[in-house]
Amino acid sequence: MALPTPLSLSITFLVIFPTFTLSSPPPPSSSPSDIDLLLTKIKPSLQGKTENLLLSSWNTSVPLCQWRGLKWVFSNATPLLCTDLSSPQWTNLSLSKDPSLQLLSLQLPSAGLSGTLPRELGELSSLQSLYLSVNSLSGTVPLELGYSSSLSNIDLGDNLLNGSLPTSIWNLCDRLVSLRLHGNSLSGSLPEPALPNSTCNSFQFLDLGHNKFSGDFPEFITRFRSLRLLDLANNLFSGSIPEGLGGLNLEKLNLSYNNFSGVLPNLGESKFGAEVFEGNNPGLCGSPLRSCRGSSGVSSGAIAGIIIGILTGIVVLASLLIGYVQGRKRKNREDDEELEEEGEEDENGGCGGEGKLILFQGGEHLTLEEVLNATGQVTEKTSYGTIYKAKLADGGTIALRLLREGSCKDGSSCLPVIRQLGRVRHENLIPLRAFYQGKRGEKLLIYDYLPNRTLHDLLHGMLSCFILFCFAN
């Protein structure tokens, strides 16, 4: 058989590549086109070592609009369609050089992909939807994905992805609508957005279930006011669930099978059932789980009666104690034991202009540097200030009570009272271990941290809180 002439080859080429009636392209761009990226980088990475049937359609012998799982659009928002295969004016070759042709969506769920996520996905300037769920993709989530200029919907669920989630993913915050990473092996703590006040105003769906994420509940999520679905189930999260979660208008929530503990926030009357929280620490309580009143079986009416009686006694005892402390202050000030202090003139050089730390009995091991560098977690907010649970560098735990602004304005009368309070020792009072006064007027009362309080601890703890309130005012 005679070989085809060059002219017949060109005619055959035009017949095989029917394309589309569209406007003339703008001048070619020097940067790689989306088609170049798909063929040279993204396709090899996604299919791995085994040729994939669906990805085999991504080649120059198939019209571009028939490449599986892809949707194309021109920069003027005109979609690429196979509208006229009989009268082509474009070929795949010419389209690949057209900088106005851009990939809008990549959707290949359940496609048998066995490779890795290519970092070049972040270079697709118009890509809005990335759906690659239910495949066998492995490796990590590339940080370049967070540098996309257009991504708003991501579904990488039910793959074999591992490692930590890159912080850069929150670069998409302003336009992100959904992020679904369900059913992978992602681990570590969930990174916070680089901007501390990010609210992700369009963000509606966050599904991180069935992974290996750990650490405390990612409290920054409570700032995402548009969130409708939150799934953190079957991970390794621990600690308390923040009260701010009750401020979200969630329609679906799943926090089951973690290690959450403490009191549940108020999530609305009968909005979610107990199954939302099952499989967590047995200490997790509150509606719709068991009551948090403890194992004593004391009824709420009995508790109210006890509290009223004790409050009456507190008022009388506090008045007597305040009078006693004031009398002792005037009579024995010069004879009292010396307090160990660290401040600006600390000869050990520990604090250098950061304020003053006054130590009391039982707090001699504390240093100003340890206190200021302790990592804190808010446990309670009251009318007289905020209470933190703080971990020291040596692994110890202390309680810090930050007095509200305006407390103890008169230092000459405030510090003597604090010193007297630091010497008070009673079996029903938590002893004050140290007091810190900063250069900007901040004041911290430092106590031993007492976890897992019972009803007895709560009722008796109210006495010290009341006394503290009196001194603070």
Report on this model:
There is one protein chain. This protein has 473 residues and is α/β, with parallel strands linked by helices. The protein folds into 2 domains: 32-276, Ribonuclease Inhibitor (Leucine-rich repeat, LRR (right-handed beta-alpha superhelix), Alpha-Beta Horseshoe); 300-472, Phosphorylase Kinase, domain 1 (2-Layer Sandwich), CATH 3.30.200. Helices cover 21% and strands 19% of the residues. The protein has helices at residues 6-16, 34-47, 92-95, 300-332, 368-373, 411-423, 455-472, and strands at residues 70-74, 101-107, 129-131, 138-139, 153-155, 160-163, 178-180, 185-188, 205-207, 212-216, 229-231, 236-239, 252-254, 259-260, 340-342, 356-359, 375-382, 385-391, 397-403, 432-437, 443-448. Strands 1-2-3-5-7-9-11-13 form an 8-stranded mixed beta sheet, with no helix packed on it. A 7-stranded antiparallel beta sheet has the order 15-16-20-21-19-18-17, covered by helices on one side. Its main location: membrane.
Which keywords apply here?
Phosphorylase Kinase, domain 1; signal; 21 strands; eight-stranded mixed β-sheet; seven-stranded antiparallel β-sheet; alpha/beta; Leucine-rich repeat, LRR (right-handed beta-alpha superhelix); 473 residues
